[in-house]
Write a structure and sequence with these properties.
Elements (H helix, E strand, L loop, with lengths): L2 H6 L1 E10 L2 E10 L4 H8 L1 H4 L9 E4 L2 E3 L10 E5 L6 H19 L3
Parallel strand pairs: 1-5
Antiparallel strand pairs: 1-2, 3-4, 3-5
Amino acid sequence: MSADSKHSDSIHVEVAYALPDKQAIVPLQVAQGTTAIDAVRRAGLDRQFEGLDIDNAKLGIFGKVVGPQQALREGDRVEVYRPLIADPKEVRKARAARVKERRKGDAPA
């Protein structure tokens, strides 16, 4: 096998994870057919971020959620998503209720 054919059997991808105060983007060269979860495991983010549960984390590629068995393509960036702290619908509902209360207090008597 020539060096060129060996090189063409691999692709370049990135694996990204971020906390509010720390982030990591790990460039990898992997074999074609590598899955999203395989790339995340290979990136070793669980060694850099204490408590990161790779096996149960949601994954995405460029902002679109994908399954762990999603095959990667050249240039893909696999993103490891953190669990939501609050349900976005509940946050919007609470914000709307606060605005309504404020308006009620501003209304002329």
